[in-house]
Amino acid sequence: MGDGLQSAGHHMDAYAASVDDILEEEEHYADQLKEYLSYAEAVRAVCRKHELSQFELEMASQDLISKKQQREELATGIVRTFSLKGMTNKLFGQEAPEQRDAKLNLLEELIAEGEETVKEKTAECDEHAEKAWADIVRFKDQKDKDLQEALINYALMQISMCKKKVLNNLFQCWKK
């Protein structure tokens, strides 16, 4: 009975050592796969930055449209929407021509600045989208290669571990 227990203990030690080797190998492959979790976070950050630049572009465009509408309303004297300015004009009369011209000049300057801002934001958004797309394509190609390599190596590691187990079992059988 003592020999049987001792033999079983040797087998358990052999299995425990092989399990540790397998876990170390698998941890290496898991680390490689965890890198792509970081990759996904980087892609998410790029998308958030693109959304932010797109939002800034839309806000600048809306501001420009609003200023152009104000200029048109000031130039024609016709207010299309209900506003406090329209009500004060109806109650107290129109502004003096000098005030109106000053406001028109100010609006023209603000419109010019707004158009420049929209052009800058559009160029910035387009540039960011081009760079992001190039990076995403490059990362995707690299990811495909790396994942294929990692999975092939993992499969080869599993095959070699199984071969080692089979050989160990055969040697154990031959020793008996």
Automatic annotation (TrEMBL):
Source organism, top-level taxon: Eukaryota
Protein name, as recorded: Sorting nexin 4
Coiled-coil features, chain-numbered ranges: 104-131
GO cellular component, one term: SNARE complex
GO MF annotations, alphabetized: phosphatidylinositol-3-phosphate binding
GO biological process: positive regulation of autophagosome assembly; protein transport
Keyword ATP-binding assigned: no
Keywords: Coiled coil
InterPro entries assigned to the protein according to its UniProt record, in alphabetical order: AH/BAR_dom_sf, SNX4
